[in-house]
Every structure is written in structure tokens, then in C-alpha cells.
């Protein structure tokens, strides 16, 4: 048995960049900074930051490009994938990316008037019936959570 699953919580390092493949499928890329605090051997607290490249496909790509901005705190769940390519100089290059199937905003989304909306629910790439890319809202206490269940073929 094998398992390839990654879960991170961090802040977007830049605004998501969306493009479309030649066959018309949306793909969005963004980076997430994840901080780790630890004590060094002398007992002093240190912080280090690990950067992750995140890729979202199809309707999840469109939702992340629409709703996320630099600095937002997000939870991302997906799988790790390493790509290779040959550069113009003939050198082989590698990059490891987190291919997202769930992206959840964890902080309030700023509105255009400067106020903040409640944190949104997960933006998912899952096995929903075809054509079900419409959001649904469920009440949880005094806060509404918007859930996007998106059919994704990657």
C-alpha cells in the first residue's frame, strides 16, 4: 500500500496566477509560506520558513484565483508531484509541487469596503456529480461556511 498526501497551513506568498492549457483547462499556481518554530541547542527560539509551490486544476483553479490573495492564511490538502524539464542551457531541472484537491481560507476575506467577511469553507476538487460546481452554504453557529465541491480530472 502507498500513500501520497500532504497537508499544509500557511500564508499565500503571492497572488494566484491562473492560465488555461491548450485544451482549455484552468490551472492556477501560487506559493504558500509555512513557518516552523523550534528551540536551538542554546535554548533560543528560532523560526524558519518553508515555501511550497501549489497547483490547482479545473474549477478549483478558478475558485482559488478568484478568492485568494497574497497574505491570506490557507489550509491546502493534496498530493506531492515532482516535474522535470530540460532548460535552454541543456540542464535538467526539477520542481516538487503540491497538487491541491482542497483549499480552505482560514482567515476572514477582506471586502472592498475595508470590512472583513467570515472565513470561507473549503474549495474542493472532489468527486461531485458533473455540473455541480455551485456553492452550497451550511450554517454553523452564527457563521456561514461556503463549500465548493468540484469535479476534477487531473
Please supply descriptive tags for the structure shown above.
two-stranded antiparallel sheet; OB fold (Dihydrolipoamide Acetyltransferase, E2P); globular; mainly beta; 154 residues; 1 helix; single chain; disordered C terminus
Strand content: over 45%
The shape, in one word, is globular
Uncertain stretches of 5 or more adjacent residues: 126-154
How would you name the oligomeric state of the polypeptide chains in this document?
Answer: single chain
Report strand order across the widest sheet. 1-3-4-6-5
Q: Quick check: average pLDDT? A: 81
Total domain modules: 1
Model description:
- The chain has one helix at residues 58-67, and strands spanning 6-12, 17-20, 26-39, 45-57, 73-86, 92-105, 109-110, 116-117, 122-126, 136-140, 143-151.
- It has 154 residues and is mainly beta.
- The protein has a single domain, classed as Nucleic acid-binding proteins (OB fold (Dihydrolipoamide Acetyltransferase, E2P), Beta Barrel).
- A 5-stranded mixed barrel has the order 1-3-4-6-5. The chain has a two-stranded antiparallel sheet with strand order 7-8.
- Strand 3 (26-39) and strand 4 form a beta hairpin.
- The chain is globular, with a radius of gyration of 18 Å.
- It starts with 5 loop residues before the first strand and ends with a strand.
Amino acid at each position: 500500500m502507498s500513500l501520497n498526501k500532504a497537508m499544509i497551513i500557511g500564508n499565500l506568498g503571492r497572488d494566484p496566477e491562473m492560465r488555461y492549457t491548450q485544451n482549455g483547462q484552468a490551472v492556477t499556481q501560487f506559493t504558500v509560506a509555512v513557518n516552523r518554530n523550534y528551540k536551538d541547542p542554546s535554548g533560543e527560539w528560532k523560526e524558519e520558513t518553508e515555501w511550497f509551490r501549489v497547483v490547482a486544476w479545473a474549477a478549483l483553479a478558478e475558485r482559488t484565483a478568484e478568492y485568494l490573495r497574497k497574505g491570506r492564511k490557507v489550509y491546502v490538502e493534496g498530493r506531492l508531484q515532482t516535474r522535470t524539464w530540460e532548460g535552454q542551457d541543456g540542464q535538467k531541472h526539477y520542481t516538487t509541487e503540491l497538487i491541491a484537491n482542497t483549499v480552505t481560507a482560514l482567515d476572514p476575506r477582506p471586502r472592498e469596503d475595508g470590512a472583513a467577511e467570515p472565513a470561507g469553507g473549503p474549495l474542493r476538487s472532489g468527486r461531485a456529480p458533473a455540473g455541480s460546481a455551485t456553492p452550497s452554504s451550511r450554517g454553523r453557529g452564527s457563521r456561514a461556511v461556503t463549500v465548493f465541491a468540484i469535479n476534477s480530472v487531473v
